[in-house]
Design brief:
Blueprint (H helix, E strand, L loop, with lengths): L11 H21 L20 H11 L14 E9 L7 E8 L5 E7 L3 H9 L4 E7 L2 E6 L7 E5 L4 E6 L3 H13 L9
Length: about 190
């Protein structure tokens, strides 16, 4: 073809203009597959997954060997996740965890376990150590904090240790901590 440049004269501008159609095709396919979107006002919160906290904690109350509490939280808090794990180290035990999205859109979670405070904290928080205490409605909570990590509070309620952690602020921690200690342990049905 007589009006094409010799290959040696091609430069980055030619490469750039040849990639534009490929990028446009990729964007069209991603849009058709609903895998991307554009919002001029910034990101929007996605749909919070449904999690039946009553059924999950009810099941835990029937099967775990320690009292389980289901805290009564503000109406704008949404349970979104839960799990059951086991700490196998000495002083360990089963752990029931439920996560919530607060009214402010932050995530906090509550773990309940028969494990010792040290084992529960090590299991959930790694190598962090206590840095102080707070009092919530007459219950002492041991605070674990590090500048670059999420804070955590742990309380010993006798037969169970409870741990609150997440991205929430102190008000969210106080709300969850207070609702947990105020809640009566769920009664498993008679067998």
């Amino acid at each position: 073809m007589p009006n094409q440049k010799p290959r040696i004269l091609h430069d980055y501008r030619d490469l750039f203009f040849s990639l534009i159609p490929l990028v446009l095709i990729a964007v069209v396919f991603a849009g058709l597959a609903s895998q991307c979107s554009f919002s001029a006002t910034g990101p929007t919160q996605g749909r919070i997954p449904h999690f039946d906290v009553d059924a999950a904690l009810g099941s835990d109350a029937r099967t775990l060997p320690f009292p389980i509490r289901n805290p009564e939280l503000p109406a704008d808090w949404t349970p979104n996740s839960g799990s059951r794990e086991t700490i196998t180290a000495a002083g360990g035990g089963p752990v029931s965890t439920v996560g919530y999205i607060t009214g402010d859109g932050t995530y906090v979670r509550l773990s309940q376990s028969s494990a010792t405070e040290e084992q529960l904290a090590r299991f959930v928080l790694g190598s962090r150590y206590p840095t102080g205490t707070v009092d919530v409605d007459g219950v002492k909570w041991v605070v674990y904090s590090e500048p670059t990590e999420e804070n955590a509070w742990v309380a010993d309620l006798g037969a169970v240790r409870v741990l609150v952690t997440g991205a929430g602020n102190e008000a969210a921690f106080r709300t969850l901590a207070g609702a947990t200690t105020a809640a009566r342990p769920l009664q498993p049905p008679s067998r």
